[in-house]
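Request: When convenient, would you put together a sequence paired with its C-alpha cells?
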Amino acid sequence: MVTFLPSGPGPLADVPSFHRAIGGAESNVACALALSGHTAKWVGRVGADGFGTHLLDALTAYGVDVRSVVRDPQRPTGVYFRTADDRADASHEVVYYRAGSAASAMSPDTVPLADLRATRVLHLSGITAALSPGCLELMRALCTRSTDRPLLSFDVNHRPGLWSPTDDGAPVLLELARGADLVFVGEDEAADAWGVRGGPAAIRAALPEPAVLVVKQGAAGATAFVRAAGNATETHHVPAPLVTPVAPVGAGDAFAAGFLSATLRGLGVPLRLRHGHLMAAAALTVPGDVAVPPPRAYADELAALGPDAWGRLRLGPGWTGRPQEARA
C-alpha cells in the first residue's frame, strides 16, 4: 500500500498534512532484506494508477525485484493513514482504504505461484488472509505442507480491524501458522488473538508444529523455540537493546527481516535473534516503516558482543550510520 505518515502527533482529525511513503508487511520485509544485500522479490498486485507506479518505483529503488507484480486496470492501489502514536497505545489510529483494492484480488488463479516457490524463503503475513476470500484461499494453498516448497516464513500480524465484525481472524491465523516452517508472533498478540497466556512456553505448547517459533516480547526481547534432533526443542532467549524510538511502528517487519537475513547467512539462532533486534532498532529510530540497516560488518560486530556489553547497548536516532552513536 501507499502509506500516509502524519506530519506531527495527534489524532487524524487534527493532523494538517501527511508525508507519502510505502507500506505493507511483506514489502517492508523485502525492502529490508534487499538493503541488507540479499536478493528479494515482492509478488503482489497494485492498481494501474499513480499510486501503483509510485509503489513499484519505490520498491525498485530499494533494490526489490517487482517483475512479478501485476498491474490491475480495474482496481485501485490500497492506501492507509496512521497517527504517530505507538500501535499499542489507545490513541493510535489507522484508517485503511483497501476494500476492493488490486491486492484484494489476489488468489491462486491471479498470482504466479511458480515465482513464489522459486526461492529459498517465502515470507507471508496474516494481513493478506484478511483482505478477501481469494486472498485467504491463496494463503491456505501456500501454507499447505509440501515437499517442493521453500522455507515458509509466516508473521501472524493479527489486525482485528481488517476482519469482519463477527470474525477477528484468530482461528484462521492459527491454522496458517500451523502450516508454516518459521513463525513470528508477539506475546501480547497471542494473548489477544488466541487467549494464550503464560509466556513463550505456553505459546509454544499451543503452536508446536513450526520447526522454528519466534515469540516477540517487546522491550523484554524475543524467545525462539527450535526443533532439534529426536524431536527435542531448543530454547533461546535474547534480550532487546535499549532503543530511543522516533516512531514506534515497523519494528515487527524489521525484526523478521533481520532474523531472516541471519537465517539466510547460516548464523546460529541466538545471532539471528540479535540481528532481528538490531534491524528492529533501525526501524524504530526513523519516521517511516523501512529503515536503512547498519552495514553488515557493523551489525555483526554488535551481534557478537558479550552478554554484558549487549545488555548495555543503547541505540538512538542515527545509530545505523554512525557507529559512535551505539554505545555499549
Summary: The chain has a mean pLDDT of 92. The first strand starts at residue 2 and ends at 6. Residues 269-284 form the longest helix (16 residues). Residues 117 and 147 are 11 Å apart (CA to CA).
